[in-house]
Design brief:
mainly alpha, two-stranded antiparallel ribbon, 69% helix
Length: 374
């Protein structure tokens, strides 16, 4: 018995045991989760009978939330890598305008216009990252410059070519195109038709669409949001590259000394941000059938706000794609919910500011309590 006791290895004092509760409390999604519960509780109390939670109401705020989610995924990964991209909004407007010019003005097949636009915008994202890496300038400054450059081209090019800042006719040009429905179509239309016939969702009662469901499918915008969230979450939490992203944003020099290709990681994250912005732009022009020079205004700040609400740090190295998705959901629900609740729409930004501040304070306070930071 004595010999057995002597051979039992002693616990390593350097390893600190963390309870499941403490692990849950230091998750970056905590602020987003609390904010989501608070927002839904508020609107369930004050807007439950307004139509916000019927099929059409749910679809309305789901679409708005999905828009924020798409750009928030790219912004989240880039911020965790320690960088910012303030050109996201301008990239959305620029990408939409390029599709209109290529597909409508120049008469290219829409699928070619979409692919060329993706290549062009991802290339600009890579250029952003390359300039940041090569010059050592803050990404805030570099992407701020591209915010103005891209917005300027978005206004200039249609004026020179078409003598106007809005180009329509995209839906007609996309008729019969094989790639356009991937961004502008809907899925599960038969399922929604069945639910309408079964009386599970609202249907039209008059006109040529009598008996048809008001919500007749899930837009590809929402599908893209879900796909990007899953991809970003798996990339960040289940792969070696995800560890590289955290390392590049946490301590770039230490990461380099450990063999992490920090420069490559950062450039790829700028390209990912551009990809997400282009996805948003293509879905938008396919929905509206036109491209406008003012599209995407302030979207870069909305993406950053969603990511911060979701628990990411502005200093990099900490965050969660799922948290960013929750932040985007809060954003969309609040924006649409105020209308359903009969609240003055101008108070949207007041609500948003309160939620942003509350989420940041909560995340910071709990992280300091749990980790012992000061």
């Amino acid at each position: 018995m004595a010999e057995a006791a002597q051979t039992t290895p002693a616990a390593d004092e350097r390893i600190k045991q963390i309870s499941p509760l403490r692990k849950a409390l230091i998750r970056p999604e905590l602020g987003g989760m609390v904010g989501t519960v608070a927002v839904f509780t508020f609107f369930l109390l004050f807007a439950f009978d307004s139509g916000m939670f019927n099929s059409q109401g749910v679809m309305n705020w789901s679409i708005v939330s999905a828009q924020f989610m798409i750009i928030a995924v790219g912004a989240c990964l880039l911020m965790i890598a320690g960088e910012f991209d303030l050109s996201v909004g301008s990239m959305i407007g620029f990408a939409g305008m390029m599709i209109a010019i290529f597909g409508v003005t120049l008469g290219w097949p829409i699928w070619i216009a979409i692919i060329v636009t993706f290549v062009l915008c991802i290339g600009i994202g890579a250029l952003n990252g390359f300039i940041v890496i090569r010059t050592g300038l803050p990404s805030f400054i570099v992407t701020l410059a591209f915010l103005f450059i891209l917005r300027g081209f978005t206004i200039y090019l249609p004026q020179i070519i078409e003598r106007k800042t809005i180009i329509g006719g995209i839906k007609d040009a996309a008729e019969g195109d094989w790639l356009a429905p991937v961004f502008g179509g809907k899925i599960l239309q038969g399922f929604f038709q069945w639910m309408g016939e079964a009386g599970l969702i609202t249907t039209f009662t008059r006109g040529t669409r009598a008996g048809q469901p008001v919500v007749d499918g899930i837009p590809m915008l929402i599908v893209w949001a879900i796909v990007l969230i899953i991809f970003g979450h798996v990339l960040l939490t289940k792969t070696k590259f995800g560890n590289w992203i955290f390392a590049a944003g946490g301590d770039a020099e230490a990461a380099r000394n450990s063999g992490v290709p920090v420069n490559r990681v950062k450039v790829l994250m700028f390209m990912m941000t551009a990809f997400c912005a282009t996805v948003f732009a293509v879905c938008q022009v396919m929905e509206f059938g036109s491209a406008g020079a003012d599209r995407g205004l302030l979207k870069e700040f909305e993406a950053i706000i969603a990511v911060v609400i979701g628990g990411a740090l502005l200093t990099g190295g900490y965050g969660s794609v799922l948290g960013a998705a929750l932040g985007a959901l809060i954003f969309g629900v609040v924006q649409q919910g105020l209308f359903f609740a009969g609240v003055e729409s101008s108070l949207f930004r007041v609500f948003l500011g309160v939620i942003l501040l509350g989420a940041v304070i909560l995340n910071t306070y709990i992280r300091r309590v749990i980790t012992g930071e000061r």
